[in-house]
Amino acid sequence: MGSSGMTSTVFVGIGLLFTADPEREELEDAALLAEDGVVRWIGPSAHAPEADERVDVEGRAVIPGFVDSHAHLVFAGDRTAEFAARMAGVPYSAGGIRTTVEATRSASVPELVHNTATLVSEMAVQGTTTFEIKSGYGLTVEAERRSLEIAGQFTAETTFLGAHVVPQGTTADDYVRVVTGPMLDACAPYARWVDVFCERGAFDEEQSREVLAAGIKAGLRARVHANQLGPGPGVRLACEMGAASADHCTHLTDRDVSDLADSGVVATLLPGAEFSTRSPYPDARRLLDAGVNVALATDCNPGSSFTTSMPFCVALAVREMGMTPREAVRAATLGGARALRRHDVGILRVGARADLAVLEAPSYVHLAYRPGVPLVAQVWQSGRRLV
Ligand code: NIG
Ligand code: FE
């Protein structure tokens, strides 16, 4: 027993350990010791130390818990009819967000907590141990504030996305004044991040810059919805403002790619959105070859990507975006951590949080090789069994 009363656990018989640690990314026949919630030792299974608890994973693969750095989980209602219409040929537009805004505003706090908890449990059984949650379906001062308060019950990675779309009955410029004024004042205490949907039909370059600048001034760090539906200024702006991450990155110029590479801004790719909007996927190969840091996330939301599954995103990234299985799993773990500027998660090395998933497979490659199969057998968070 450690002094905190937590037990130590040693995982032995790990057929293939994917650590996401660039120093030693893969180990065969490995063992890992977790103590007081953090990784204390990694080495050959034959040399595994003693611990209070011994878990023999019998040749299965182990990976770090997934880090889902982009999710919109606080909402009510769904958009089944919109999805069905889209699959019959109606194009996706950001306007659908307003449908969810209406349903979310009319929902009670317990309903929203329940809905969020349901999605969070879905994430857990699919191996996600760290996740971000955005507001953005309230779009009034109080509705945004309560969304963030709810998000904070589930994660420290809370993002103020008051600038998701312009709500009905106001102009973009008037709304930006609210977002950067009273809404930011009410929301900043509940948020770590500020985000803006910089896109035709949402917020233009200047409005987006104002939103990010105001958020940064209030002590938040920036991330941006950029270049999802068409080419635009979002990625350039993310680099200019020193954002942690530019998310979507579907339509990029060569300049966007070199800006991302030079600035170190993470390109967070969200293939669930292209899947569910039947759009061309972002070109991950182009980004990786240019030296850009790439993350994968679900973008879970009721409109453009109603999935909580990181394994699904890994499979799409490998099949459709030119990533190798190793690159995709790295992007879904270490990449997500980098997009959240976290050093304690998304990686299995001494001192990191003991967050890991045991796969019902001999290799992480199976996440792409066996798409749609529930391969996550066990999930451990801070050294405790979660699933
Ligand atoms: O990331 N792009 C903006 N927001 C979401 C879509 C939200 C919606 O359609 O409800 C996204 O894809
Ligand atoms: Fe999003």
Secondary structural class? alpha/beta
Low-confidence stretches: none
Using only CA atoms, what is the Rg? Answer: 21 Å
How widely separated are the two ends? 22 Å
The helix/strand series, from N terminus to C terminus, equals EEEEEEHHHEHEHEHEHEHEHHEHHEHEE
CATH superfamily of the largest domain: Metal-dependent hydrolases
Helix content: 25-40%
Mean pLDDT: 97
Could you give a short account of the major beta sheet? Answer: 8 strands, mixed
How is the secondary structure organized here?
Blueprint (H helix, E strand, L loop, with lengths): L8 E10 L7 E10 L2 E7 L8 E4 L4 E4 L1 E3 L11 H8 L9 H10 L2 H17 L2 E7 L6 H11 L5 E7 L8 H16 L5 E6 L6 H13 L3 E6 L7 H7 L4 E4 L5 H10 L2 E4 L1 H7 L6 H6 L4 E3 L13 H11 L4 H15 L16 E4 L6 H4 L6 E6 L2 E2 L2
Parallel strand pairs: 1-4, 1-5, 6-7, 7-8, 8-9, 9-10, 10-11, 11-12, 12-13
Antiparallel strand pairs: 1-2, 2-3, 5-14, 14-15, 15-16
The structure holds N-(iminomethyl)-L-glutamic acid (NIG) and fe (iii) ion.
